[in-house]
Design a protein that fits this description.
By secondary structure, this protein is mostly helical. Helix content is 66%, strand content 0%.
Length: 182
Protein backbone atom coordinates (compact mmCIF):
# COMPACT_ATOMS: atom_id res chain seq x y z
CA UNK A 1 0.00 0.00 0.00
CA UNK A 2 2.85 2.37 0.75
CA UNK A 3 4.26 1.92 -2.76
CA UNK A 4 0.88 2.64 -4.35
CA UNK A 5 0.44 5.70 -2.14
CA UNK A 6 3.96 6.90 -2.96
CA UNK A 7 3.19 6.97 -6.69
CA UNK A 8 0.33 9.40 -6.06
CA UNK A 9 2.37 11.43 -3.62
CA UNK A 10 5.01 11.92 -6.32
CA UNK A 11 2.29 13.06 -8.76
CA UNK A 12 1.02 15.58 -6.26
CA UNK A 13 4.43 16.77 -5.03
CA UNK A 14 6.08 17.02 -8.45
CA UNK A 15 3.18 18.13 -10.62
CA UNK A 16 0.50 19.47 -8.27
CA UNK A 17 -1.79 16.75 -9.62
CA UNK A 18 -5.39 16.94 -8.43
CA UNK A 19 -5.72 13.20 -9.08
CA UNK A 20 -2.69 12.63 -6.87
CA UNK A 21 -4.11 14.86 -4.16
CA UNK A 22 -7.48 13.10 -4.15
CA UNK A 23 -5.85 9.67 -4.11
CA UNK A 24 -3.78 10.73 -1.10
CA UNK A 25 -7.01 11.60 0.72
CA UNK A 26 -8.31 8.08 0.09
CA UNK A 27 -5.04 6.54 1.27
CA UNK A 28 -5.05 8.82 4.29
CA UNK A 29 -8.46 7.52 5.32
CA UNK A 30 -7.30 3.91 4.98
CA UNK A 31 -4.19 4.60 7.06
CA UNK A 32 -6.28 6.43 9.66
CA UNK A 33 -8.30 3.26 10.24
CA UNK A 34 -4.99 1.45 10.77
CA UNK A 35 -3.78 4.07 13.25
CA UNK A 36 -6.92 3.71 15.34
CA UNK A 37 -6.45 -0.06 15.54
CA UNK A 38 -2.66 -0.15 15.76
CA UNK A 39 -2.49 -1.37 19.36
CA UNK A 40 -5.50 -3.66 19.16
CA UNK A 41 -5.36 -7.44 18.96
CA UNK A 42 -5.81 -9.04 15.54
CA UNK A 43 -9.55 -9.68 15.98
CA UNK A 44 -10.26 -6.07 16.98
CA UNK A 45 -8.07 -4.85 14.12
CA UNK A 46 -10.07 -7.03 11.71
CA UNK A 47 -13.29 -5.52 13.05
CA UNK A 48 -11.92 -2.00 12.57
CA UNK A 49 -10.91 -2.89 9.03
CA UNK A 50 -14.50 -3.71 8.16
CA UNK A 51 -15.08 0.05 8.18
CA UNK A 52 -12.20 0.42 5.73
CA UNK A 53 -13.70 -1.94 3.15
CA UNK A 54 -16.13 0.71 1.76
CA UNK A 55 -13.22 3.19 1.62
CA UNK A 56 -11.13 0.70 -0.35
CA UNK A 57 -14.05 -0.04 -2.68
CA UNK A 58 -14.59 3.69 -3.22
CA UNK A 59 -10.88 4.15 -4.00
CA UNK A 60 -10.98 1.29 -6.50
CA UNK A 61 -14.05 2.69 -8.25
CA UNK A 62 -12.55 6.18 -8.30
CA UNK A 63 -9.27 4.87 -9.73
CA UNK A 64 -11.15 3.08 -12.51
CA UNK A 65 -13.06 6.26 -13.35
CA UNK A 66 -9.91 8.38 -13.35
CA UNK A 67 -8.07 5.86 -15.52
CA UNK A 68 -10.64 6.37 -18.30
CA UNK A 69 -9.91 10.10 -18.24
CA UNK A 70 -6.13 10.10 -18.53
CA UNK A 71 -3.99 9.29 -21.56
CA UNK A 72 -2.03 6.03 -21.75
CA UNK A 73 1.61 6.41 -20.83
CA UNK A 74 1.12 9.47 -18.64
CA UNK A 75 2.51 9.54 -15.09
CA UNK A 76 -1.05 9.56 -13.78
CA UNK A 77 -1.95 6.50 -15.86
CA UNK A 78 1.13 4.67 -14.58
CA UNK A 79 0.27 5.46 -10.97
CA UNK A 80 -3.32 4.30 -11.42
CA UNK A 81 -2.29 1.18 -13.34
CA UNK A 82 0.20 0.27 -10.62
CA UNK A 83 -2.58 0.21 -8.04
CA UNK A 84 -5.22 -1.45 -10.19
CA UNK A 85 -2.90 -4.24 -11.32
CA UNK A 86 -2.07 -5.02 -7.69
CA UNK A 87 -5.49 -4.38 -6.21
CA UNK A 88 -6.02 -7.87 -4.74
CA UNK A 89 -2.65 -7.67 -2.98
CA UNK A 90 -3.25 -4.10 -1.81
CA UNK A 91 -6.46 -4.95 -0.01
CA UNK A 92 -5.45 -8.41 1.24
CA UNK A 93 -4.79 -6.94 4.70
CA UNK A 94 -8.51 -6.12 5.05
CA UNK A 95 -9.30 -9.84 5.47
CA UNK A 96 -6.63 -10.64 8.05
CA UNK A 97 -6.09 -8.79 11.30
CA UNK A 98 -2.50 -10.04 11.50
CA UNK A 99 -1.35 -8.58 8.18
CA UNK A 100 0.02 -5.05 8.11
CA UNK A 101 -1.37 -2.50 5.65
CA UNK A 102 2.09 -2.20 4.07
CA UNK A 103 5.57 -3.67 4.27
CA UNK A 104 7.38 -0.53 5.42
CA UNK A 105 8.49 -2.20 8.65
CA UNK A 106 10.40 -4.89 6.73
CA UNK A 107 11.77 -2.44 4.17
CA UNK A 108 13.15 -0.22 6.91
CA UNK A 109 14.95 -3.23 8.39
CA UNK A 110 16.61 -4.24 5.11
CA UNK A 111 17.44 -0.73 3.92
CA UNK A 112 20.98 -0.74 5.42
CA UNK A 113 21.77 -3.90 3.47
CA UNK A 114 20.31 -2.55 0.25
CA UNK A 115 22.18 0.73 0.61
CA UNK A 116 25.44 -1.08 1.26
CA UNK A 117 25.13 -3.55 -1.60
CA UNK A 118 27.87 -1.80 -3.60
CA UNK A 119 30.21 -2.50 -0.70
CA UNK A 120 29.39 -6.19 -0.85
CA UNK A 121 30.84 -6.35 -4.36
CA UNK A 122 34.27 -6.08 -2.80
CA UNK A 123 34.06 -8.95 -0.31
CA UNK A 124 37.11 -10.49 -2.00
CA UNK A 125 35.59 -13.64 -3.46
CA UNK A 126 32.29 -15.43 -3.90
CA UNK A 127 33.05 -17.53 -0.83
CA UNK A 128 33.78 -14.41 1.26
CA UNK A 129 30.58 -12.80 -0.01
CA UNK A 130 28.57 -15.82 1.07
CA UNK A 131 30.18 -15.72 4.51
CA UNK A 132 29.41 -12.00 4.83
CA UNK A 133 25.79 -12.68 3.84
CA UNK A 134 25.50 -15.43 6.47
CA UNK A 135 26.94 -13.20 9.20
CA UNK A 136 24.65 -10.32 8.22
CA UNK A 137 21.67 -12.68 8.27
CA UNK A 138 22.60 -13.75 11.80
CA UNK A 139 23.03 -10.15 12.94
CA UNK A 140 19.71 -9.02 11.53
CA UNK A 141 17.93 -12.14 12.78
CA UNK A 142 19.33 -11.40 16.23
CA UNK A 143 17.94 -7.86 16.03
CA UNK A 144 14.53 -9.17 14.90
CA UNK A 145 14.55 -11.49 17.92
CA UNK A 146 15.35 -8.52 20.17
CA UNK A 147 18.85 -9.72 20.96
CA UNK A 148 21.92 -7.54 21.28
CA UNK A 149 23.92 -8.75 18.24
CA UNK A 150 27.38 -8.42 19.77
CA UNK A 151 26.43 -10.38 22.90
CA UNK A 152 24.65 -13.01 20.81
CA UNK A 153 27.59 -13.50 18.41
CA UNK A 154 30.15 -13.51 21.24
CA UNK A 155 28.21 -16.24 23.06
CA UNK A 156 27.61 -18.29 19.91
CA UNK A 157 31.27 -18.16 18.92
CA UNK A 158 32.23 -19.37 22.41
CA UNK A 159 29.71 -22.23 22.29
CA UNK A 160 30.29 -23.25 18.69
CA UNK A 161 33.43 -25.40 19.18
CA UNK A 162 31.67 -27.68 21.68
CA UNK A 163 28.19 -27.66 20.14
CA UNK A 164 27.25 -31.03 18.58
CA UNK A 165 26.48 -30.69 14.86
CA UNK A 166 23.09 -32.37 15.43
CA UNK A 167 22.09 -29.47 17.73
CA UNK A 168 23.57 -26.56 15.75
CA UNK A 169 20.09 -25.07 15.23
CA UNK A 170 19.97 -24.30 18.97
CA UNK A 171 22.46 -21.51 18.30
CA UNK A 172 20.19 -19.69 15.85
CA UNK A 173 18.82 -16.36 17.11
CA UNK A 174 15.25 -17.59 17.54
CA UNK A 175 16.48 -20.53 19.66
CA UNK A 176 19.25 -18.85 21.65
CA UNK A 177 18.99 -19.18 25.44
CA UNK A 178 16.82 -22.32 24.99
CA UNK A 179 13.80 -20.26 23.94
CA UNK A 180 13.29 -21.97 20.60
CA UNK A 181 10.12 -20.89 18.79
CA UNK A 182 10.32 -23.30 15.86
Amino acid sequence: MAHARRKFHELWANHGSQVGEQALKFFGQLYEVERTAANADSQARLEARRSARPLADALNQWLRQQRQRVPDGSATARAIDYSLKRWAALIRYLDDGDLPIDNNWVENRIRPIALGRQNWLFAGSLRAGKRAAAVMSLIHSAKLNELEPYAYLRDVLELLPTQPASRINELLPHCWRGECQE
